[in-house]
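Dear colleagues,

As part of the handover before I leave the project, I'm documenting each prediction I ran so the next person doesn't have to rerun anything. This entry is a single chain, and its sequence is reproduced below.
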Amino acid sequence: MKLSRLTLIAAVSSAFFAGCASNVPLDNKAAPVESRTPGSTGSTSGSSSTSGANSGKLASVDLTKNAQPAAEVGRVVYFDYDSFVIKDEFRPVIEGQAKVLSADKSKKLTIEGHTDERGGSEYNLALGQKRAESVAKSLKLLGVTDAQIEAVSFGKERPAAQGHDEAAWAKNRRAELSSR
């Protein structure tokens, strides 16, 4: 019985390690390397050349380029009822804030999650936190560090608009981004 267990463990281990093995050759002759020098047209090293998709120029993304001052970048992201999904129309706000924070790593931002008055206090605190964390996650994906952002929830405790109608509720379902 012990021998069959050892055989089984050995077979599973060898199958695991065989699956982890790489089939990518490590010598430079096997795969062409794309040149990344400025003005390059995507030529490769060696005597062979590539065609098709690899023949175009490479472009890099620079978040610090054209970074706007923090005062000019939007500071509020609004959400749909009972949702923490960021709408496409507020992506420029998040991208602008990410550019500002990426340009100056010493800047810090507090993301305050808010809800409308409907629902219980505990539920709204949790929803506000999810909204703040949703914005924080988007900022992190754009290169902002954890040390630069803090997500907090105020739930329904700090409404932006007073009232008991859809117009007021829509203004209260938000995440506010403020410097700290």
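The chain has two domains: 25-59, 70-179. Confidence is low (pLDDT under 50) at residues 18-37, 39-55.

All the best with the project,
I.
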